[in-house]
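Ticket #4471: complex job returned nothing on first submit. Input attached below:
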Amino acid sequence: MKQVGKKSTKIFDIRYLCIVLAALYVLLAIAFYFLAGAQLHYRESRSNIDMLPAESGTIELVDGTRVEQVFTTRIERLKTISIQWGAFYRTNAGTATVNLYDQESGTLLLSSTYDVSSFGEGTITDLTVDTPLEGLVGKPLLLQILADSAAGSAATPLISSSAEAQDGFALYLNGEQAPGQLCFSASGEDYIWTGLHYWQFIAGFGLALGTYLLWVYYRWKHGKYSVLAAALSAVRKYKFLIKQLVSRDFKAKYKRSILGVFWSFLNPLLNMLVQYVVFSNMFRFNIPNFPVYLLCGNVMFNYFSESCGMSLQSIVGNAGLITKVYMPKYIYPLTRTLSTLINLVISMIPLLAVALLTGLRPTKAYLLVGFVLACIAIFCLGMGMLLSAAMVFFRDIQFLWGVLTTIWMYLTPIFYPADLLPESIAWVLKLNPLYYFITFLRTCIMDGVSPEPVMYVQCFLISMVMLAVGALVFKKNQDKFVLYL
Amino acid sequence: MSEQTKMIEIQNVSMRFRLTDDKIMSLKEFVTRKLSGKLKTTEFWALKHVSFDVHKGEVIGIIGKNGSGKSTLLKVIAGILKPTEGSVACAGNIVPMLELGSGFDMDLTGRENIYLNGAILGYSEEFLNSKYEEILAFSELGQFINVPIRNYSSGMMMRLAFSVATVVNPQILIVDEILAVGDAAFQEKSRTRMMELMSGGTTVLFVSHSLSQIREMCSRVVWIDHGNVKMIGGTQEVCDQYQQCT
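Support reply: We reran it on our side without changes. The output follows.
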């Protein structure tokens, strides 16, 4: 409805809101810097060398013999070198020494000595540094293994004899080149450019935001339209209505049930318990802390399916209101999304409880969960707008959606590990928005660290694109709703 | 006219409905019909090029036969329907009294419903807080206000709805037939309240089939016939013409 006059946009002082927004930005930028911690600066290197499956032993590593592996890597901060050993199915004696040299300059980078008697068949030894080694990118490195054992009681480093030759890799046994590759792994971290340029970023975005706010303020002062001012005046105008509708939805959900709101705690717990019993007995997935893994997935997916299911009915279900009273129609899916969001926030409590019970300890990364909750809520709002608009014209959507949610659930790694999917359909995961949200939550809760910066961008973009699509479809069709109800 | 502030400006409003034999509610139905060429729509213009202005403080009566487009016009002005052509501009808040109690939730108590319904009608929280006692007193519900309204009798429900709807002094009031609800005593009370509202300086758009009410209340009358404005002018004049025609 068109309003004559500019009264409605002038009823509040936008200056105050601009200042609050700017202050909030600075505050969040600083808070994020500390909450994200090391994950803002480094990520697990994309160039880690994985251990190849062992196929045979090398030579019996007696005193004076040596096994050497030359390799190059693009790991920017090398942290760990692991080697796999064979023991000839006997108890050995003596010591084995592992050295890592920079081949060009001949400097000894790392060295460690192990007690050979502790080696079993396939034992893996880790050589870890305190301060990660930097500046080794692309340089040939020499991994040298020596021992002082006597013949008959010596161990042997394992090799993958069928490994294909790679550039910069070579295996030497007692100085003679041999085919295959030593069973070793190298891992470390890479720098992320977000960490290197974080403050420049923040300053850049801050500048853009500041300019935008000034522009909005200027437009507002001259009584002109701007999206931000319009949105703020809408929030102000409909705040009370939204509050009332949300509280109605929330009350209606648990109406006449004895336990009431308590179901918001109980539901995810019971669900998790059922799945835990089923999946830990029938299929044995090798997932550490399976209850928390399950609960993270469940909580997120349930919110998604509940919120979208509720939004789906929001226009059709409020037909009585829409044909009698004017209010912006986006309010209906919005309030449904918000009232289910309360549920999601409540179900974080059982999640936290289970996490504590299974021995996880809260870290500062737990505070980052708020980000992913906001993202999934925005995503569901977009989806809900799309569905509710479609539902008005084609009532079949409600039945289709039921089937679709089931398919979606099985395609989301809620109760199975993400890498279980066969190669051929692994790409589906990459297209599944919920996978990103759930992984984000799991990284925060289970690993206790912030996800990689790229995850934030992914989650944010996914939710914004969904909202844009949903809002566009909704806006285009909203005037026709009333004719089809 | 002493006050010339335009409150509502209706410019060349036309409203078209597409009528199909049945509403098509499923994709399958739509596709099969579309393919077999059975998707026939007849166009129906509920309003055709309606234009008039309403000034501040006026009470406009809208008369016409059943199905002439009166209620459609009210819905267009209230913003519920978007006109196919033309535009409606309103200055000030509109309270549409098209149907009482839309948005009541059966599982909430009377008290909660006052706030819910009030919010839907566009009242602010402070306003409802300050008027709560007044609404309660007018509805005569007393202790029943804390009972879920699914237990109300239909009369009680209407009394509550009426009390919420008429507690405001809106700038523009849209009334589809004067509402008189409840028992005889309450009907009298509600009629008085409506009269009070409509004569209190608010701009009113008022649809009625009772010419005597129109004559009593209105300063101008719009006669709508088959979606066209047949006549617009002083109450006496238009009502006399209308009576002659029917």
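The CA atoms of residues 209 and 235 of chain B lie 14 Å apart. Closing as resolved unless it happens again.
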